[in-house]
């Protein structure tokens, strides 16, 4: 592990500047460790050795705090998504059950009447909505398992702990796009909501035009708001309405 630490370039957050004003490409921990290796006998400089140990301890503590805060925020986001999925699944089940009691005999016939064509499309939209919702929940559960593994306790030695953080974060989380996967989960649930609302509006138009017109207006306003907040950052870079879909549009 020590050889691995020596071979890897590790930035722990305690970057300092040279007295001449030039930037130094090594953190304080490594600047303290290098003189010890040149001395050949670290025991000959006890004060410097203690400073190195203290620097690595601060480095390890800072990285541990960073990891815990990041994982806590991600877990809270996943928990919120799972709560939404449970509500959506319950609503979907109730609406779809009541709807299919009267419609299922028609859409299952060999030659369904024209009125059941709308029922087929409504069922298709709603089942797509359910699939997106459950897919988001399933991936969210798997991601929680990944995050649990990410914060698995590391060795007590601060230098080894910092190196393990580098392996898990710089060579694991970032290159394998874990933050992007977490950003995609809300998009899946938003697609589920859109498909459900479109199917609901289609159902209402087959029942009552007045009710359908009112609900369609409300749904259209929601869609316009979603499109507006997605495209606004293109013209206003400092707009706080930043999301994955907004960043993709930019």
TrEMBL record:
Q: Which UniProt keywords apply?
A: Membrane, Transmembrane, Transmembrane helix
Q: Where is the DUF6535 domain?
A: 109-206
Enumerate the transmembrane spans.
81-104, 124-143, 184-205, 211-235
| Matches recorded under InterPro entries | DUF6535
| A Pfam cross-reference name | DUF6535
Q: Does the keyword Membrane apply?
A: yes
Q: Can you tell which superkingdom this protein's organism belongs to? A: Eukaryota
Name under which the protein is recorded: DUF6535 domain-containing protein
What species is given as this protein's source? Obba rivulosa
Q: What is the lineage of its organism?
A: Eukaryota, Fungi, Dikarya, Basidiomycota, Agaricomycotina
